[in-house]
Amino acid sequence: MRASLIQIAVDEGESVESRRRRVAGMVRDQAGADLVVLPELWTTGAFAYEEFGTAAEPLDGPTYEAMAKAASDAGVWLHAGSLPERDPDGPLYNTSLVFSPSGDLAAAYRKIHRFGFDKGEAVLMGAGREPVTVRLPQTVLGVATCYDLRFPELFRALVDAGAETLVIPAGWPERRRAHWTLLAQARAVENQAFVLACGTAGTHARVPQAGHSIVVDPWGEVLAEAGPGEEVLTVDFDPAKVATTREQFPALKDRVLGLAPPEPPLSHRTPRSPEQVR
């Protein structure tokens, strides 16, 4: 199976419309790949919080249309990264779109874990509720987005739903690049799955991006890694290695589920003297 991760440079001087056309052309150039992956919020930039409201689109808006056509023209499965989605009946969402080679929408995933703590995405966007998997002819994709990478519970749910290849578009900052690589390998090892993690390059909203998109196999071996700038990272991998790994080292079968929470710790108060007890 051949996957191409398009590590897009988000340049504040480039309009959303221009970037959308440019990226559609880059997707078309990947004809012959089985799967193409784009980063998180590449239309606006993941840290361009002030742009979310004005750039938000309905699910079937211009980015949907452009990416559906690009997937169809190239004949590829396309994880089109994510966009700020405007739900007419609710808040904004950070929503990923996956298209089939015919250009049909195969899945939409609203990001569950929103970054920012008490600001930014965490307060500007609603939280998704449902993990999402997509069945391709060669493998089952488990879909997550950026900050989701820090929460292993989501990936366990994806594996329980049949995921074999975990696809993670991101707008990850350069200052935490070590975490990006470490967590991508950890999610691969603990879930015995391929990880395809596609980030952005460049600087937007004054936040330098990590780049370094990465493909990791089920043993944690890095199969390919991009540099810091815009590039297309293409890798061939064998999805059958997931089943082989899980057979040879069946750690997932030893999971212990439904553990009760521990008892609260005992108080560390100073013991009373016998005189105080009396």
TrEMBL record:
Keyword Zinc-finger: no
Keywords: Hydrolase
Signal peptide: none
Every CN hydrolase domain range: 1-239
Transmembrane stretches, start-end: none
Ranges where the record places region Disordered: 254-278
Entry-linked InterPro entries: C-N_Hydrolase, C-N_Hydrolase_sf, UPF0012_CS
GO molecular function: hydrolase activity
Pfam families: CN_hydrolase
Keyword hit for Hydrolase: yes
Similarity comment: Belongs to the carbon-nitrogen hydrolase superfamily. NIT1/NIT2 family.
The protein's name in its UniProt record: Carbon-nitrogen hydrolase
Record lineage: Bacteria, Bacillati, Actinomycetota, Actinomycetes, Kitasatosporales
